[in-house]
Each structure stands twice: as C-alpha cells, then as structure tokens.
Specification:
Elements: H1 3-15, H2 19-26, H3 32-53, H4 57-62, H5 64-85, H6 91-98, H7 101-112, H8 120-140, H9 146-169, H10 175-189, H11 191-197, H12 204-232, H13 234-237, H14 240-255, H15 262-278, H16 286-289
C-alpha cells in the first residue's frame, strides 16, 4: 500500500474510531434524536455544495427514493438506537458488537445466493465471530443490558442492508451524492422530534462532540473513505472497521475509564479473527456480489 494509502487508512481508522467515545459523552446531555439531527443535517449541508458544484443535483433527485431509504437504514434508525444503547452500554462494548456486521453480511450472502458460494473458511469465521459475540454478551451481561445489546443487533442488520442497497440500487450514483442526500433527508426527518426534545442548555463539551461527529466523523470521513477506496481498492478498505474498533476500545478504557472486562479480553480476538476469516476471499466472495463503484462502496459502521 502506498504512503498516500496508509495516510487515508490511518485517518479513517481515527475518524471511525472516535465516534463511540463522542456519542457516549454527548448522550449524557442530549436526547438521541437530537444527536442524530446534529450529526446528519450539518454534514448534509456541508456536502451539498460539492454536489451542486459537480452538477449532480438532478442525479440526487432522480434517485432520491432509494437514497432516502438508504439514509433511514444506515443513519436515521441505527444512529438513534446506538445513541440510546450507549446510555446503558460502554463505548467499548458498543464498538465491539458492531464487529458483528461482517458476519451478518456473510449470512446475507448465504440467503441471497446458493450455499456452495460460501467457502469453509468463511463458515469457520462465522463460527468464531458468533462465539466472540456470545462471549461479549455472556461474560459482560448485566441486569437490564440484554435489551440494549438487542438494539445493537438491529443496528448490525441496518449496517448490513445499507451496502446491499448501495450495490443493487445506487451503484451508479457517486458516494458524495448518496451521503449528502441521505444526511439531509434524515436530518429533516428528525427536526420535529428534536424541536420538542431540544435541551434548555447545551454545554461546550457537548457541542464540540456533536461538531466533530458531524464535520469530521460523517462529512470528512466519507470524503476520505472515497479517496481511500480509489487508492487501495474496496477489499483493503474494508479492513478499516477492524482497526477503528481497537481504537474505540482503547479510547473507552483510557478516556472514559471503562473497565477492561473478561468479555472484551475473550470476545474481541474471536470477533476480530472471525470477521477476517468470514470476509476473506475464497471462491466467490461477498465483495464480488456487493461490489460497487469505487466512489460509492461504503462501509458505514460508526
């Protein structure tokens, strides 16, 4: 990988590694719906001028229905559920549970295609990953937390369906158009809720968290990710989630003084190894089924 590729890769690992900590801090004072508004609407407004400059607004309007659906399953619902769950789960555990997304993706391939198209290596990866998630849930489970872990699994489903929509319905639409349209749509949808749940006061710390989430972790991250895919290819780019999860765990333990639990020590390596095995090439793999244009292939898991 080139120096430029490593630069983009490192930036993405940070951009998608820090949201879990920022969300955990922000939801102490913000309603989850207000946080979704703060993450999406400013990001969409930042990206819209790029769409206008590239004269791609007609393309956005023509494909708006699927862009809106993508926004709901990738941003609107998951980000609300994640912010809600992080009121009760540590940022470390939240980021680790999101590692189940590659495993869900392989299962999606299993049901969308015939059984022979998934290699034994991938089934081994699915087994290891499932064991890792079970370790995280079983060893770290506390009273009342099962509900919030269930919400995280719903998020994983959304993060699995989103890329499939991109590949099957929006493969001809540049990524910046998709993200701008989806962010704006989700932000507008959350406006009425946010107006009713707007806090009486917002601390500087909370505002800074929301600003970084929107400008850096959403708008900036997607633009950087497009460049990363162009530089190193979609297959290598999908390794980013494994690295940003490690960053999220470290930040949670160091920055928020979250405990290094037995579940993390046992489950993290299993989820990591299982995800790598499950998404590795072997026969016909999921990347060939869900591959899309280099500026559209997104892995959204923060």
């Amino acid at each position: 990988m080139s120096r430029r590729g490593w630069l983009f890769f490192s930036a993405m690992a940070v951009f998608w590694g820090i949201p879990y900590l920022l969300i955990r801090v922000a939801v102490r004072h913000l309603d989850p719906g207000v946080l979704v508004l703060g993450r999406t609407l400013p990001a969409g407004l930042l990206l819209l001028p790029i769409v206008l400059w590239r004269r791609e607004l007609p393309l956005l309007m023509k494909n708006f229905a699927w862009i809106a659906i993508f926004g709901v399953v990738e941003f609107g619902v998951p980000w609300y559920l994640m912010a809600t769950a992080e009121k009760h789960l540590t940022s470390s555990l939240t980021s680790l549970l999101i590692c189940a997304v590659p495993l869900f993706s392989v299962l999606a391939q299993r049901f969308m295609n015939n059984e022979g198209q998934i290699s034994a290596r991938r089934y081994v990866g699915l087994g290891l990953g499932a064991l890792g998630v079970a370790s995280l849930v079983g060893l770290d489970l506390k009273g009342g937390s099962l509900t919030w872990i269930g919400l995280m699994m719903i998020i994983c489903v959304g993060y699995t369906v989103g890329p499939i929509i991109l590949a099957t319905k929006l493969s001809h639409v540049p990524g910046v158009v998709v993200v701008a349209g989806a962010s704006l749509f989700v932000g507008v949808c959350w406006l009425p809720w946010s107006t009713y749940h707007w806090p009486s006061s917002i601390s500087t710390e909370t505002l800074n968290c929301v600003a970084v989430l929107s400008v850096v972790c959403t708008a900036g991250a997607f633009l950087t990710f497009f460049e990363l895919v162009k530089e190193v290819g979609a297959t290598r780019a999908t390794v980013v989630p494994y690295v940003n999860t490690a960053i999220a765990v470290v930040l949670g333990i160091v920055g928020l003084h979250e405990p290094l639990t037995v579940g993390i020590v046992v489950g993290f390596p299993l989820v990591l190894i299982g995800s790598i095995f499950a998404t590795s090439r072997g026969g016909r793999d999921i990347s060939s089924d869900f591959e899309v244009r280099s500026d559209t292939n997104l892995v959204v898991n923060e």
